[in-house]
Amino acid sequence: MSLKGRRERYDEFARYYDLFKSEDPDDIPFYASFVREGCVILELGVGTGRIAIPIAERTGCREVVGIDNANEMLKIACTKRAASPVGDKITLLRGDMRVLDLGRRVDLILIPYYAFQFITEVADQIFVLQSVRRHLRP
Q: In what order do the strands lie in the sheet containing 63-68?
């Protein structure tokens, strides 16, 4: 399936995503365990913000940047960010993790749940990993 076709499928699924995934909250403490005080986090495949927003709320991170290419998922994430008491430290951007260029480096990069597994072509997986390397501080 093409990237455009996958994005359209995610847009259709967006309104149901949190209903299915909210019953598995164990991954949030797992990802939070990697966060250090004052760090900047990049989440690739941020979706509805199911991980990014609780991470921003529950940890001492300075900023969370979330990237996704699914419009409807990002709309939901933006609504949730607006309702969060720490919404000002969450940045949500539409983008492709394969060719990302934030123009800066971050302390921690997360690709939660199955986001990386949706990158099915080996060449695209390599592009994602190169993007991660470019954005991650040593």
A: 90-94, 63-68, 40-44, 108-110
Q: Tell me the Ramachandran region of residue 133: left when phi exceeds 0, alpha when psi lies from -120 to 50, beta otherwise.
A: alpha
In angstroms, rounded to a whole number, what is the distance separating the alpha carbons of residues 63 and 82?
A: 15
pLDDT digits (tens, 9 = 90+) for 56-73: 999 999 999 999 988 888
Are 91 and 74 contacting, i.e. CB atoms less than 8 angstroms apart?
Answer: no
Would you state the CATH architecture of domain 3-135? 3-Layer(aba) Sandwich (3.40)
Q: Are 48 and 73 in contact (CB under 8 A)?
A: yes
Strand-pairing partners, residue 93, are 67
Retrieve residue 46's tokens.
Answer: 């941020």
84 DSSP assignment: S
SS percent in the chain: helix, strand, coil, step 5: 45, 15, 40
Please give the backbone phi and psi of residue 60, each rounded to the nearest 5 degrees, phi first.
Answer: -95, 25
Q: Enter the pTM of the model.
A: 0.84
